[in-house]
Amino acid sequence: MSTYDIAIRGGQVATSFGVTRCDIGIKDGRIAAIAESITDAAQVIDAGGLLVLPGGVDSHCHIEETSRGGYTMSDGEPQITVNEESFVTASTSAFAGGTTSVVCFIPQWKGFGVWERYVDARKRGETGMLDFAFHQIISDPTDVVMKQEVPKLVAEGVRSLKVFLTYEPLHLGDAEYIKVLLAAREHGCLVTVHCENFDAIGWRTRALLDAGMTAPKYHAWSRPRVVEREATHRAIALAELVDQPIQVFHVSCEDAAEEIARAQARGVKVWGETCPQYVTLTAADMDRAGFEGAKFMCSPAPRDTAEHARIWEMIRRGTLDIVSSDHCGFSYEGDKGKGSAGRDASFEKIPNGIPGLAARLPIIFSEGVSKGRISIEKFVELTSTNPARLMGLYPKKGAIQPGADADLVLWDPAKKVTITNALMQHAIDYTPYEGLEVTGWPISTIRRGEVVMRDGKVQAEPGTGRFLPRGPYDMVKPRGITPDGFGA
Ligand code: URP
Ligand code: ZN
Ligand code: ZN
Q1: Nearest-CA neighbor of 184 among 273, 247, 233, 267?
Q2: Most exposed among 180, 250, 393, 461, judged by the fewest C-beta atoms under 10 Å?
Q3: Which range (295-304, 338-347, 410-419) has the least confidence?
């Protein structure tokens, strides 16, 4: 009998600490050994000429989320709708792009609790092939939810809450946001925040619609940088007051990132995430002919190429230390064009969000490493190690070391590929990155010691994805009210 189930031989193993030529021995789904030469294995995978990376960890994905409302059924009850991307199709897409774990979302329907939604989301997650954890969206922070249900979720290993400072009907006002921060602090959760000013966007949107400016491109006009900067500042200031760690989601511009940098310099516990769309797409994409602009519509809105360079600078400085996809399953022929008033819909009726689960690693490698903007180590940190660390999944995920799950990607750093929707292998009928040329591509994806993708062919059994319960955050607890807020 062989010592190892699999030996990966001859690759350049890349972690956030460095790139080294060595072999990896896998046993029972875990990394069992890392050595100069490992031969005693039942199966040998040749990684010569390839990088061996830890599997991608995407800590911001919208998969199979349910919503209540929109359409009314014949008995008068609002219809329950499900996001077009299921856990099965999302798993295929993730493996195709080198991602092996995700943190996705449990919805909260306004007027309802969260426990039932967790039970439902957990069952849905277990139908897929990806390993998954959850953030709990809080859109209605009642006492029952925050004092009774959130502690139950924490006990299950759901240790982060997502709040929206904009979006009807999800957004929270400042008083509700503070309530969430306080509950998170008490129960040991991270709070993740969508930072845009709801009232400012509402005012801009009404003014644009009144002037007949309804096309997709006006989405960007309705939410300029300043609404993101203001909400980012406010989200951080209130978190600082309560002394509660937060992560600012999908930072699109330097203005908002500078707010994070200033707070980090003061020692505030704030992290910044950005996404591939903010280094590749621009507001001009939403001005494509006809209704095509809807394909690029997400919030915050993509900016311009000068902003891309500033986002890279913020990544290099470490202000933005995680790159997630913010993958959203709205097809062009489906929810984007038909969900409300169809192709004649004004921009505020088009669902926000774009698909990017499979494209995330290739885009960040190509735009980052291949174009000389970041090192391979930084790439691993941004796309795998840092999200695993912040989400409490490290070193089970995001690491190549003995004892870690054998989630690995064999990566060809020189392979040139033109992105097409077929390569994304998702359920969505388009990719906003169609035609983008990238250098660097995943050749094989291994999840817990099983080869789940080779040369673009995904082979994994639905129902094999595992829920990832997350351990407690090490947080300072309140010692009482001080003149400046909570704190020691
Ligand atoms: O436009 C976006 N980002 N849609 C997805 C939901 C969210 O805001 O994260
Ligand atoms: Zn958001
Ligand atoms: Zn999102």
Answers
A1: 247
A2: 461
A3: 338-347
SS3 of 230, please? helix
196 Cα–ligand 3 center, Å:
13
Q: Domains of the chain (ranges plus CATH)? A: 56-369 (3.20.20.140)
Provide the pLDDT for residue 474: 66
What are 147-194's pLDDT values in tens digits? 999 999 999 999 999 999 999 889 999 999 999 999 999 999 999 999
Say how many Å lie between the CA of residue 177 and the centre of ligand 1: 18
Distance 347 CA to ligand 1 centre (A): 15
- Are 293 and 287 in contact by the 8 Å Cβ rule? The answer is yes
Å from CA of 324 to ligand 1 middle: 12
Does residue 350 have its Cβ closer than 6 Å to ligand 1? no
Ligand nearest to the CA of 235: 2
In the predicted structure, residue 380 carries a pLDDT above the cut 50? yes
Q: Report residue 488's pLDDT band, with 50, 70 and 90 as the boundaries.
A: very low
- Ligand 1 atom at minimum distance from 299 CA: 1
Q: Which residues pair with 105 in a beta bridge?
A: 135
Q: Where are the alpha helices (DSSP H) in 10-147?
A: 87-96, 115-125, 143
Which range, of 111-125, 152-166, 275-289, 473-487, averages the lowest pLDDT? Answer: 473-487
- Cβ–Cβ under 8 Å, residues 144 and 113: yes
Q: Residue 370 corresponds to which tokens in the numbers above?
A: 């291949």
Q: 169-181 burial, b if ≥16 CB within 10 A, otherwise e?
A: ebbbeeebbbbbb
Determine which helix (DSSP H) or strand (DSSP E) holds 176, and give its type and residue range.
helix 174-187
Does ipTM top 0.95? yes
Is the CB of 298 inside a 6 Å radius of any atom of ligand 1? yes
Is 353's C-beta closer than 6 angstroms to any atom of ligand 1?
yes
